[in-house]
Structures are given as C-alpha cells and as structure tokens.
Amino acid sequence: MSALLEISGIGKSFGAVRVLSGISLAVSEGETLGLIGPNGAGKTTLFNVVTGFLRADAGQVRFAGAPVDRLPPAERAARGLVRTFQKAMVFPALSLRESLAMAARQRAGQGLRWLGARACHQESAARVERLLAESGLARHGGERMADLSYGEQRIADLLMALALEPRLLLLDEPTAGLSQAEAERLLGIVRRHDARTAIVLIAHDIDIVFNHCDRIAVMHLGQLLRTGTPQAVRQDAAVRAAYLGSLAD
Amino acid sequence: MGYAIVQTLNALSFSALLLLTGLGLSVVLSLMNFVNLAHGGFYLLGSYVAVLWLGSGAPWWLAFPAAFLAAGLAGAVLERFPFRRFYARPHLMQVLLTYGLSVIMADLMRWGFGAQILTPELPAALQGVVFLFDMPFPLYRLFLIGAGVALGLLLWLLLDRTLWGAVLRAAVTDRGIVETLGIDTRHLFAAVLVLSAGLGGLSGALGAGMLAAYPGLDEEVLILALVTVVVGGLGSFGGTVAGALVVGFALTFSKVWFPEFANVVAFSAMAGFLLLRPNGLIAPPLRQI
Amino acid sequence: MRDIPLSRAAPLAAALLALALAPLLAGAFHLRFLAEILLLGTAVMSLDLLVGLGGLVTLGHAALFGTAAYAAAIAALHLGGNLFLVLGAGTGAALLMAALMGVAIMRSSHLFLLILTLLLGQVAWEVAFHWREVTGGADGLRGLPPLSLGPWRLDGPRALFLLSGGLALAAYLLARSFADAPIGRALVGAREQPLRMSALGYSIPRIRFRAMLAAGGIAGAAGSLYPFLNLYVGPQSVHWSLSATMIIMLVIGGVGSLWGAFLGSAIYLALQTYVSAYTDRWQLFVGLVFVLIVLLLPRGLAGGLTGGLAGSLAGVLSRRGRP
Amino acid sequence: MDRLHRRKNLRTGNSAPPSAPHLAPGRRLVLGGIAATLAGLPPARPTLAQTTLAQPSLPQPALVQARPVRIGMITSLSGPFTALGESMRAGMQLLLAQSGHRLAGRPVEFLVEDDLARSEEGARKARKLIGQDRVDLLCGVISSGVALALRDVVTEARTPTFLLGSANDLARGAASPFIVRPTKTNWMLGTTAARWAHEKLSGARVLTVGSDYAAGREYIGDFAATYQQLGGRLGRQLWTPLGSADFGPLLTTIAAERPEAVYGFFAGSDAVRFLRQWKEYRLAGRVPLFGAGAFFDQEDVLPAVGDAALGALGTFHQSPTAPASAAFNQAYMATGKPLPGEFSTTGYVCGQVIRATLERADGDLADWAKACGALFSAPVETAFGTMPFDPRNGQAILDIHVNEVRRGEDGRMVNTVLHTYEKLRDPGPDA
C-alpha cells in the first residue's frame, strides 16, 4: 500500500539560512506520526511547505498519489491535507458554532454560496452539532470565540480542522500551553472522531508524543535525524545526543 | 541626441520632485507604519510659504528653510493631536483621519492664501538655461535634480548612518526594548513626523517653480507621491527612489511618445505593474507565519 | 423558520413607511434629492460589503458606478429608456468592470489595493473623458430619453423616487442576505484570519473576487438609474473623487452597518447642498464633521446610534434586574 | 448682529441697507432644511422670527413691483474653477451694488450656489434654487459640462436662465427657448484666431497644442478648420491631458519640431504652467504664440506668469483695453480687485443683460416669451460692447478682439486690443 503523504528531498532556505535540507518522509493512512526536535529544527517550516504556505526550493510533496507542489494552500486543504497553527487561530468576532459551520460548509462545497443560504445553514448544522457534542463544548456554541478560554479556543481550532473531514491532519503543537489533562482531552477528541485519519503531531511534551504516536520522526538543524518506533527512537544514540540527552539527564 | 538627453533630464527632474514628495510620505510609512494623507497639505503649505517669501525681497535661499519650518510646525501641532493617537490604529482609520484633516487644511489654506494661482519669482541665479546639443534645458530643473539627490543622500545618512537613526530603527522593531533603555519613543516618533512634514514643505518650496501653487494642488501631489511610494514598495528607502524613477520616467516618456494618451498609458502601465508585482518594486522580506 | 429579530424588522418597517409617505409629503426638488441619496446610498452600501465585511478599501467604486451610468445612458440613447434594458445594460457593464477590479482585489490588499484601484479607476475616467464619440467627453451625454416601463413614463420626481426607493430596498435585502450567507461569513473570516481560512480550504482570492462582483452588481444597478435623475451623465460620475466621497459617506454612516450607508449619504449630500449656500467654508465644515466622527464615533453614526441605544437599553434592564 | 444678516447670499454687499432683509416664506434655516430633507418632510413653516421679518407675501399682480426678484447664480466656488467662480460672483455683485440692489424697480435677492465644477452637483443646485428657493431666474456656470447638464433641467422647469458656459453646442443643438447666452461660444474665438493668423502669418505652418478636453478640442478644432479653409498649413497637432503637472516633455517636443508658429489653448493652472515653462525652455520670443480665450486671461493667468506671455496674441471677447469695458474696469478695481479678466466681466455683463431684460419687461418675467422678445428686439449696451442677440438661439453676437500681451505703464502685463472682428455670430442651429 502506498503512503498517503510522500515527501522527498525537500530543501528550503531563508536568505543565507538553510532551514530544511533533503527531508524525505512518508506517512501512511491512519498512522499517527510524532515530529519532534529542538526549537529551530524546522518542524513548522516543514508543515508550511507541506500545506503550501511556503514554497520549497527543492524536492517534491505528493498527497494521495498526486503531486501537490503547485497547489495553493486552500486547494490542498480541500483535498484533505489539513493543518492547525502553533497559536490557536480563531475568528474572534464569530461564534463557535458559526466558525465550525464555516469549515463544515466549505467541506460540503457550499462555502461561497450566496443565494439559497438557508439550505446550507441547515445542512452544515447537523455536522456542527455532532462535533460540539463529541467535544463537550455544546453549551459554548453560541459564544464568541474571543470569549472562550484559551484551552477551549485550542479545542475549537481543532474542531474546525476536524469539520473538514481531513485525511491527514497536521497538528502544530496543539497542546502547547495546556495542562496535561486538557492535552489528553484534546488528543482524545481527535482519536474518537475518526480513527482512519492520519495525523502528524508536533509537540514539545515528550510523554504525549511517545504515548500517542505509532512512529516518531526526529528533526535537528533542518535535517531528519531518525525515523522509527518510539522504542527505537528512544534508544538511538544520535537522537539522545542531539535532543533527548539533555532531557534524560 | 540633444532631444533624447533633454527628455531624459526632464524625466529625471520630475523624478526628483516625486522623490522629494515621496520621501516625506515614505519616512512615516516605513518607520512608523503611519499613512499620512495630509502630506499633500504640507507640500502646498510649503509652496505658499516659498511663494510669499520669494516675493518679499528677503534672501531667496532662506525660502527653503522657511518652508521646512512652517510645514514642520504644522506637523508638530498635528502630531500632538490627533496623529499620536492613531499610530497604533489600522491603516484604514489613519487614512480616514488624515484625509479628513487634509480637507480641513486645504480649505484653511484657500481661506488664507486665496484661490488664485500663485507662482514664485525665481532668483536670477535659477532662471538661466543650458543648451545641450542646441536643445534648451532650464537651470532650475538641474537645481531640482541636485536637490533631490542631495536630500535623498542626507536622509539616508541620517537614518542609516547615525546613532539617532539606529535608535529609531530599533524603536520601530521593538518599542519596548528601546524604552527600557530610557529613551522616550514618543519624542522619537514626534521628531520623525516633524521631519516628514518639513520634507513635505521643503519639496513644496522646491516644486513651486514647476507646479505653481493653487487650491487642489495638494491632492494632485498627494496622489503622485502615493503612487510613487506604493510602486516602489512600502517601507524601504531604495524602494522610494526606484518608485520615483519608474513613475517619473513613465509619466515623462508617455508624454514624449503618446502625448495624447499620456495618462492612460502611464496609469495603465503602473496598474499593470502593480498587478504583476502586488507588493511593489522592492518589497521588504516578510514572513507571514 | 428563523425569526426576524425586532432590531432588524423595525428599521425595515420604518423604511417602508417612509417610502410610502414621502411622495405624499415632499416637494419635487426634495423627492429628486431623496432619490439621489437613495441611489448613492445603495452604491455606498455595496462598498460596505467590501470595506465593512472584507476590510478591503478600494478607491475604484465610482468606476463601477459610473461605468454602469454610462452604459445605461448609452443604451437608452440608442435603444430607448426601457427600465429593464437600462438596468440590464448598466449592471452588466458594471459586472464586467467589477471582474477587472476583481483581478486587482484578488492580488493585492491594504495600501496597494487602494492605489491599484485608484489607478484602474483613473484609467476608466480617462476613457470616459476622451472617448468623445461614445461618451461625449468632458461635456458628458445629455438629452437622454426618460425611463419607461411599457406604456408608463417614469420621469417625474415621484416615479424616480419610488424607483430609487424600490431599488434601494431590494439592494438592501440582497446585501443583507449576502452578509448572512456563507459567502458573507467567509469574507469576514478572510478578513479576520486569512491564514486560517486558507487552511480551512477557502481560496481567499476567490472569496474576494465574488464579493467584488456582488458589490459591483449592486453599485451597477444604482448607477444605471443615476443618469435618469437629470437625464444627463458626465465624467465626474467615474472619477476617483466620487469614490473618496463614497468612503466618506460610509464612514459618516458607519462602516459595517449596511443601513448606515444611506444615513451617511443623506448627511453628506445634505451638508453639501445646504451648508454651501451659507458659507464658502463649507468644505471646512464637512472636514470637521468627518474628523470628529473618526475621532469620536469610529463606528459611524449608525454604530453610535445602535451602540448608544443598546447601551442605554442594557442600562435600564440591568437596573431593573437588581433587587 | 442678527444671524440672518450673516447669511452671505441674502444680500449682495456691504452697501445693502442693514434693515429689513427680504425673506421669502419658503426660505428655511440650515438645520430645518437638512432635517426636512432627511425626514422627507414638506417645507417647514416659517418661524415666528422669520414671519415678522418677512415681507407679507402678496401675489396680486398690482404689487409685482414690490415683490423682490430672486436671482439664483450657480458657479464654481470650489474645485478647479474656484478663482473664476469667485470672479464671476464678484462681477455680478458689483452690478447689483451699482444698481442699488434694485432692478426695474424691484428689490433683488441674490442667491449663490456652488457647483464644485461637477455636472450632477450643478443640476441638483439648480433644482434646489428652482424648486425650493423659488428663484425667478437663474444665471451662471463656468464649466460647459455643468451648463449642458443644466440645459434640460431649466428647460423642463421653464426657468429663464442666463447661461455662461461656452461650448458650441449651447448655441446649437442644446439651445433652448429658456436660455439666453450673454457670452461667447468657443467657435467665435477659434475661427477669428485662424483669420488673424492667416492674415498676419501669410501661410506659416502652425503647430497646435491643446488641453485634451471638450473646450480645448473646440478651440483647436475650429481654428484648424478655418485656417485650412483659408489655405493655411498645419503642422503637428499635439494634445496633452487636462491637469498636466509637467510640460517639459511637451515643450521639448515642440522645440524639436521647430514650428513657425504655435497656436494653443490651456486654461487655469495648465495655462500658468505651460506659459512659465514656455519661457523656461526659451521658446518665448523665438516662436510666435497664438491662443484663444482663457489662455491669457487677464485676472487668472497673466499675473501668475510674469513676462512669460509677453508678445503672445489671443482672441477674446474680453479685453481690459476695450473701450466698452473702461467704466467697469474702474468700478471693479475700486473694490480692491485687480484688472478684470473674462469671468468678472462676464458676471457683470450677465447682470447688465438681466437688468435690461427686467427693464424691458417692466420687471415682470411671467410672460417669458414676451420678455425674451423684448430683449432680442434691440442690442444691450454691455462691458463687452453693444450686444445684439440672435433670436434663433438666444446667443449674443459679439465683437471679438485680437489681444496682444503688452507691458503696461506700471509694468504689469495687459491684454491690449490690436484689432477687432465685429459682430461675430455663431452659425447656431445651422452648423
């Protein structure tokens, strides 16, 4: 079975600074891949390249068997390659329900409808209510996003991504700034929603990564250091030296 | 031969005028992220001051510092209230506020200086002409080119090569850090605005010999300056220079080659250019995420 | 069925009542004046779709409005003043122009958009100003046939007022539905979090292009009737200074509140028409009013009114709620 | 000071008696007007103060003499023609002051509205003056675009109008039985310039350069047509957009063409810039310069260009050295104004024609056809000279002067009459 996402030979520089060099990586359907590495390793840049927010200098990205390098971010998202951002990016003036509806309508291909809006509203409503119920945020549905707590905003951010029914979800530090319990709750929502969704997870909390991921990729100074099962990675000498070592001491 | 040289000099002199007006605008835009549509008003005020000064019999060369001071003073007043409260606001609000102020300034100037077209009496030293291959070119325009180059250099040295300029650039990047050093950034920003307004007035004084002074000129100049700054790409000194050259040459040579359709050609060319390069000639590197 | 909230129904009812009563009470000049306010207000409201919802400030709106005006006038000169013909020609031309402006709005934003649309508007003005055989050049086109609908001539002030009122009302409902529809919400989303919107699979250029088409269509419909107020159309209706005037009207009325556009155009035109008879300094007056509104009521008079009303209402309720 | 007195339009000047301003019942205070308009309400009733101040409105014909005649003027008090509009108003105000604010025995109320040089604005102001202020007659307008926009408005309202724009069409296709035109058409100036050029330059190749808008096209087009008819040769025809900031490129092109003579038309700030740069590029004195109309306007252009226009020739229906305008010149300058130019004289002449119309109709314009007939029956003595009217289109038949810009005794530049073409009559509807 071929991989869902195939990255080969990605390189990227900002001016004289080489941020990514020769990254090759594959993610298969339903898999959860953890992406770790110290600050400045190039994890978020890799996300930006994969989702089309940055254009790579070299290399290729294939998603579901087709090259997506020339597609704009919106087009990639529409194909199921969905991401979140390091900081919760919510629409402060819209309510939680409206925000989720925005994602749900886009998924249904009705995001730019003008006339016959009533029908769109109703169609997306069911999916939105299901998401709200799953996440336990139903009672906040009518509140403006700006009025939600930070943890709730992060969950709302995730729910928007889930409303798109992603095939691959790229989560960029979804648990940063959250308590352990909140983080577990958030990842639980992802898993419960749809087990077939592949996930790439960037997180600084090593425990979370090792507990939730099937495989782990370690980045350091723009290069992919090692890919493997949590066990293998934990025991890798190079990884220890570059990254885990400081934690293990 | 002479024809081509003189037309090129025509373009250069107009570019110099655009540079002078554009610089004032781009200084506040690039350093303080403040859009000042009242800049045309500073320009026209400078023109009027210079016209009156040159007609008064006082030493002619003092007309330029006088125009700088008059416009700078107007800028200082407006900086205290209400510009200062709008530095952190979105561009739309700045555009609206300063546009309203420019309407008020324009009407006050019409009140004070009348609606007649006024022109300066240039000193004899600037009235001469040079002949290049038998084609006449006014000395005054050479003076404009010289002034444009000199002022551009001076400003660049001030902002790029002095401590004051360094502090200023630091304050733009991070206001907080500079304030912890005990520097009052409010004064710093006020000084930049006064400098920009003064530059507007100075360019008005220099440009009066070419464009005269009358109600409505402020708006015409403002648009040219805005186009210059935007075509150059916001927020860089080199961009404004490049923009002035592009706009000056486009406007001049469209008049040379298609006199009847000069504006259509020049505007379409600039619009087309902005469609192809939506961030202008020299866009500062920007990381969105 | 969704209920229409009272806050929305009340102004609607008031508008209908005013439309019905005005022709009985106002004189010929005032009716025509009101018609002008309504037509310009409609154009300003369409601008509000871009500025208020999308945060996209353009200086090219008069080009849409004026292109429609010229197209409608030219169609009427050659083919007669049938209302639907005129509306169709004007709106169609405006949509074409909006498609051109749409390319601009897809590609640029902020100050760049402002200048790009200014340049495009200037090109449109140059064409109207110089294409004498078709547009009459600086002198404009006069002697248009009056509007007609089958056997009825619609050239009296009352007919023009009712026509403009009907158009304004229809345009308001249309704009309202745009703002509430997925496309309107997407436009707000693209303003607030453009990156997030891209990540949700929304193509921001496509959202903006469609918004420009919607705004252009509405402005075009208003523009097509505009020449028939005076049976004349001139190049000033395309000039960027009319775009700037529209922005002023919008800000006075209140950015983001659709009905504020009508309030803004009424106040601006009334100032311009009445104050100028009393003092040469009327522009000073308009400038001061404008600056004061920007300083004190950033959400315009509409925002100030509803904010003030809602505020006082909330005050009353909370006082009552106390034991 | 009573606030009613400060309203600028009510009275024509300081010489007006301070008592008893004539307020018609329809006139309202600013706020009342705005409020009424916003609410779509009918005109408010006059307030108590206004009622007591106002003349009792008595519509009986016997008292028509006592009722004030209301004259509405539409002119540009902002926008590109501001200075011209102020001059036009000043000329009219001077005539009214000289007449003691009474014409044909009736007191005058003079209302001025600003058209911003925008057609739609002018049309709205005209409708306001007609529909709300109930003026008896209208006059004014600088911009021909505004004049053409007003044509149907005043014709439909059947309001007698003295219209001062100069587009040829105003005397031709756009002529109207309700419009009198006490000023020139562009054709009159363009064609006489061609005749003069033909007589004096004996077939020189003339390069034309013009501001590319309606008036420029007419001035240059009529010149070119007549000049070629007479057998003259034309050189290159150059056009430049209205509102050009820099004429350097154009003047360099002209210098490279080495023309035998240049005929041009510019107005306002364009004229000032063109002439100053004409001198800077050393074309002044080397190439004969012809022009027409506002290009060398005495009040608007000449004071701003120093001696740059010295020796230039222009055809114009106005000249400060024309004998007919001597009395007006003196009176105008006595109010502290400079030597008058076209629009101050036009404003004054317009007043003279309005006065003649009212006097010949015994102050009663109710029967406009009759009043108009009386006006057209005999010429009117004006500051433009003896002015007969063409009854076909209400267009004045004018003497056109060829002016040379000369240095006057006090050193200032003066448009000096060299020659006069008498009784120019626009082809009118026949054209």
UniProtKB/TrEMBL annotation, chain A:
One of its GO terms (cellular component) is plasma membrane. PROSITE patterns: ABC_TRANSPORTER_2. Residues 5-246 form the ABC transporter domain. Keywords: ATP-binding, Nucleotide-binding, Transport. The keyword Transcription regulation does not apply. One of its GO terms (molecular function) is ATP binding. Pfam families: ABC_tran, BCA_ABC_TP_C. It comes from the Bacteria. The keyword Acyltransferase does not apply. InterPro entries: AAA+_ATPase, ABC_AA/LPS_Transport, ABC_transporter-like_ATP-bd, BCA_ABC_TP_C, P-loop_NTPase. Gene3D superfamilies: P-loop containing nucleotide triphosphate hydrolases. This is ABC transporter ATP-binding protein. It comes from Teichococcus rhizosphaerae.
TrEMBL record, chain B:
The lineage of its organism: Bacteria, Pseudomonadati, Pseudomonadota, Alphaproteobacteria, Acetobacterales. GO terms for molecular function: transmembrane transporter activity. It is found in: Cell membrane. Keywords: Amino-acid transport, Cell membrane, Membrane, Transmembrane, Transmembrane helix, Transport. The keyword Transport applies. The chain crosses the membrane at residues 12-32, 37-54, 60-78, 99-119, 139-159, 188-215, 221-249, 256-276. It holds the Pfam family BPD_transp_2. Belongs to the binding-protein-dependent transport system permease family. LivHM subfamily. GO terms for biological process: amino acid transport. InterPro entries: ABC_transp_permease, BCAA_transport_permease. It is a multi-pass membrane protein. One of its GO terms (cellular component) is plasma membrane. This is Branched-chain amino acid ABC transporter permease.
From TrEMBL, chain C:
CDD domains: TM_PBP1_LivM_like (cd06581). It comes from the Bacteria. The chain crosses the membrane at residues 85-104, 156-175, 207-226, 246-270, 282-302. One of its GO terms (molecular function) is branched-chain amino acid transmembrane transporter activity. The keyword Cell membrane applies. It is a multi-pass membrane protein. GO terms for cellular component: plasma membrane. PANTHER family: ABC TRANSPORTER ATP-BINDING PROTEIN (PTHR30482:SF17), HIGH-AFFINITY BRANCHED-CHAIN AMINO ACID TRANSPORT SYSTEM PERMEASE (PTHR30482). This is Inner-membrane translocator. It comes from Teichococcus rhizosphaerae.
UniProtKB/TrEMBL annotation, chain D:
Keywords: Amino-acid transport, Signal, Transport. It comes from the Bacteria. Residues 68-407 form the Leucine-binding protein domain. Coiled coil: none annotated. InterPro entries: BCAA_transport, Leu-bd, Peripla_BP_I. One of its GO terms (biological process) is amino acid transport. Pfam families: Peripla_BP_6. Residues 1-10 have a biased composition (Basic residues). Belongs to the leucine-binding protein family. This is ABC transporter substrate-binding protein. It comes from Teichococcus rhizosphaerae.
